[in-house]
Write a structure and sequence with these properties.
The complex is a heterodimer. By secondary structure, chain A is α/β, with parallel strands linked by helices. Chain A has 12 helices and 15 strands. Chain A folds into 2 domains: 213 residues, Thiamin diphosphate (ThDP)-binding fold, Pyr/PP domains (Rossmann fold), CATH 3.40.50; 111 residues, Rossmann fold (3-Layer(aba) Sandwich), CATH 3.40.50. Chain A starts with a strand and ends in a 5-residue tail after the last helix. The chains are: A alpha/beta, B alpha/beta.
Chain lengths: 355, 252
């Protein structure tokens, strides 16, 4: 067992990125993720890396685009309003098939919103996040340890599939401190023969580009990309199941909401209620396999979210609406309490035979 | 004996530019400079959004297509990914550099980012069919200023070199034009200096090339070149606006 260190979630992300071989970070200050930039500003110069505070989130994501085009591991981080600004760049990264890591430590919205934790960027992260047909790999940590592990996983997946991986955390995950083991394995980056690093007059010139005026050509790129996405959906979904074997009721929650929900589930179990948890770890691809299994015995699903109900739509799709899905939520920077989730479980238990 | 040939750094493909457009001349000058400095193998070009969007097809070095206005930020990333081994240039028009990308331009200059910027100012949005640019002259008729640019309504054209010269950051700023042979030779010398500065690690070097757009100015190519002298240059005077190394040399 390796020694553990006490770290903030934001710092764990930054250190894990360095462990993953990322030597280029570009960002713009925004609460509640600024610790990532501060950590990088201290660490990068000491290890021969680059930390640069960009003039805007737009510039930061385009600096990421530049480094990504040269094939090196690169990242930026922000919080909700800043991610909206980056969405132009996210679309261009997708259109040029460039790998990158983007962290969103979410806060309440819309607009300038607030600075307290939120999960209201679920749609933005999983359904779009920019113009055009594209996906991002979306990873949702539920502990400081996972902040580190999923950051590394994000770099690996991004390189494998030439996509942006987004770590979708929230203000709680970013700010809370927990012990972390940092003796983490990293897969080496694959060869990147497409990178624009100079021809050395030894090959044809590489072009990194997302412009195709021929609709036939552009359509083919879209179809090919979605072929890749289908493969990812079948092979890369990650999730945790907790007390699901005999569950009549299934709570679905990710990130901080999953931790709150586990407390409520333990309490409900003490009261004899057969309740379990499915915790999606990848939000895209959304894990459908545990739902296919659960639907054979679960009578009621409850989606616990720090939003007005966004993941609930994917839960309904994954369960094919074969059982009712209730929403248990807070919004605008508020977090559901274990008591609120327990009450939702008890309510579902009353309706237990309603299927 | 070959006395005139296509530069190696210029791809042997047909260009899409309109007849009489000066982009072709400027592309050639950039390619000649890349050849003469022997840097093609380590050069990465950043293309803009606008008429020169397809510049990525026209140079034989590696190229990257940037989002509209973001070329200096992309160039920053590319340069910083390997400062010793990458020579990075952006090629941008007036809408790209001086309107939507003004923040990226100013801050790359302020950081003295060690890149070369070729800024083609033809006072109009060409690709989208001739709309008013940030550099369109007062009174200039365009699709979106059909009664002539009215300063009361939309302000005054931006002089990029003069503005950036106020910054401590940039190394070298020069405005040139390509409307006759003499001016083309001057333009080439400026472009060469802007690349040489990067090779020497001196920092942000921008060459503004006052250019013509016969199609959207509604002129013949000859009349457009004349209009550069008569209308453009009085508002956009040619010359060196900043040359830090030369200034330091003088002050010694």
């Amino acid at each position: 067992m390796a020694d553990k260190v006490l770290m903030k979630g934001n710092e764990a992300i930054a250190e894990a990125a360095i462990i993953a071989g990322c030597r280029h970070y570009f960002g713009y200050p925004i609460t509640p993720q600024t610790e990532i930039a501060a950590y990088m500003a201290k660490r990068m110069p000491k290890i021969g890396g680059v930390f640069l505070q960009a003039e805007s989130e737009i510039a930061a994501i385009n600096m990421v685009y530049g480094v990504a085009a040269t094939g090196k591991r690169v990242m930026t981080s922000s919080s909700s309003p800043g991610i909206s600004l980056k969405s132009e760049g996210l679309s261009y990264l997708a259109g040029a098939d460039l790998p990158s890591l983007v962290v969103n430590v979410q806060r309440g919205g819309p607009g300038l919103g607030g600075i307290q934790p939120s999960q209201a960027d679920y749609f933005q992260a999983t359904k779009g996040g920019g113009h055009g047909d594209f996906r991002m790999l979306v990873l949702a940590p539920s502990s400081v340890q996972e902040m580190a592990e999923l950051t590394i996983k994000g770099f690996e997946l991004a390189d494998t599939y030439r996509m942006t991986a987004m770590v979708l955390a929230d203000g709680t995950m970013g700010q809370m401190m927990e012990p972390v083991a940092l003796d983490l394995e990293v897969k080496p980056a694959p060869e990147k023969p497409w990178a624009t690093t100079g021809t050395k007059l030894a090959r044809e010139h590489n072009i990194v580009n997302s412009l195709f005026l021929s609709p036939e050509e552009l359509e083919k790129f879209n179809f090919d990309r979605y072929e890749k996405y289908r493969y990812i959906e079948e092979n890369e979904a990650m999730y945790e199941e907790y007390l699901m074997d005999d569950a009549d009721i299934c709570v679905v929650a990710f990130g901080i909401a999953a931790r709150v929900s586990k407390n409520a589930i333990n309490e409900a179990r003490k009261q004899g209620i057969k309740v379990g948890l499915i915790r999606p770890i990848t939000l895209w691809p959304f894990p459908t396999a545990p739902f296919k299994k659960a639907i054979t015995h679960v009578k009621n699903f409850i989606s616990v979210e720090l939003s007005m109900g966004q993941m609930i739509e994917d839960v309904r799709l994954a369960t094919e609406c074969k059982a009712p899905v209730a929403l248990c939520n807070r919004a605008g920077g508020m977090i559901p309490s274990p008591e609120q989730v327990l009450a939702a479980i008890q309510e579902a238990n009353k309706n237990g035979g309603a299927r | 004996m070959v006395v005139f040939d296509k530069p190696h750094a210029l791809a042997d493909v047909p260009m899409h530019y309109c007849p009489g457009c000066t982009h072709g001349i400027i592309h050639r000058l950039v390619a000649e400079v890349i050849d003469e400095l022997g840097i093609e193998g380590k050069t990465i070009g950043i293309a803009p959004v606008g008429c020169s969007v397809f510049a990525y097809n026209y140079f034989n070095c590696d190229t990257i297509e940037a989002a509209h206005g973001r070329a200096p930020a992309v160039a920053t990333g590319v340069k910083r990914s390997d400062p010793e081994n990458h020579i990075v240039f952006t090629y941008q028009g007036d809408g790209d550099l001086a309107s939507i990308g003004m923040a990226e331009t100013v801050h790359a200059a302020a950081r003295n980012e060690n890149i070369t910027v070729i800024f083609v100012n033809n006072a109009i949005y060409g690709m989208t069919g001739g709309q008013m640019a940030p550099t369109s002259l007062v009174g200039q008729v365009t699709q979106t200023s059909p009664y002539g640019r009215d300063p009361k309504l939309c302000g005054y054209p931006v002089r990029v070199c003069e503005m950036l010269a106020q910054l401590e950051g940039p190394e070298y700023l020069e405005r040139v034009t390509v409307n006759n042979v003499k001016n083309i030779r001057r333009a080439k010398a400026a472009i060469k200096k802007a690349f040489q500065n990067q090779v020497d690690g001196k920092g942000f070097s921008l060459v503004e090339v006052v250019s013509s757009c016969p199609t959207n100015w509604g002129m013949t190519p000859q009349a457009a070149l004349k209009w550069i002298d008569e209308a453009m240059l009085p508002y956009y005077p040619l010359g060196v606006y900043k040359d830090r190394s030369a200034e330091q040399e003088e002050n010694k």
